[in-house]
Known about the structure:
alpha/beta; two-stranded parallel sheet
Amino acid sequence: xxxxxxxxxxxxxxxxxxxxxxxxxxxxxxxxxxxxxxxxxxxxxxxxxxxxxxxxxxxxxxxxxxxxxxxxxxxxxxxxxxxxxxxxxxxxxxxxxxxxxxxxxxxxxxxxxxxxxxxxxxxxxxxxxxxxxxxxxxxxxxxxxxxxxxxxxxxxxxxxxxxxxxxxxxxxxxxxxxxxxxxxxxxxxxxxxxxxx
Length: 197
């Protein structure tokens, strides 16, 4: 059993341990970006599938992307409209993104601010984390902390007492994923948010 308090989970995440916490979609499996390979190992995940960088606010994520002033303006407008929320933006990665987050295409990075007070509380203290759904690759996302604790005994999860106030909205529906093409948006996965491409 590795169910811990929120402060212990934050300390663990800062030290490079795998952690899991609720978001506005499915619970996240998360780690410091420079320790991304731990997620791939735990999930037995293909290197073809990138991780998402989740942050507490848009300003915490902008240093990890690279674009022209005009592009940054477009991206910031979209972020202002849809974040916090279930929208992942796939943008050109800056040099701050460890290649291990997206081994197949290290030139891009998916970023998101979740609409979840507990996730934002954690991320505001850890800084942006490399995230994905909490499940073995190819299996459906696990929805409850107890299931995650059972499947991933090495992962720090939150005690149930920390979760009683958490009632996220679109639980179980993954985020919409939109990739910047240089001209506009290409929808890679349709979720609960519909973006004007």
